[in-house]
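Shipment paperwork, digital attachment
Item: protein structure file
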Amino acid sequence: MVTAVAVFAQITPAYSMMCPSPTEQQALDVRVLQTRLMVAALSCNAKPHYNTFVQRFRAELVPHGHTLRRLFHRAYGKSARHHLNRFVTRLANDESAARIAAGDTYCTDAQVLFSRVLGAGNGAVTALASSLPIAGSHGIAACQPDFRAANRSQ
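Attachment content:
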């Protein structure tokens, strides 16, 4: 099983106002998974596995990338690209810190994760990313339902 290390458990104020939809939450979870696999590829001599992942799941990864760009554009307007780049860099830095903290078990766990991901069927990476212990570790909370609006419709 993959060991999840929550390096950044607190939501930063800059991200707390984003209010991602369920679809955007899925895109965030997929980005966390993709970042974990990228760091594992670089740290654990698993570049061929990562390349297979990107090629096999391109049909899911590309739309999720578009979804993230729209999320950041909605939240940050003209500075969206800057904030998205900072976010992706933070994910990579946090995953690198998790790699260091995990020590020798990181690459073993990464190999298990690669096997699980690459064994998934086409179209399954989104569900898999959302089911892993690392889901939600991006630090951006889902929108809270507006109970006042729900009560008005009754």
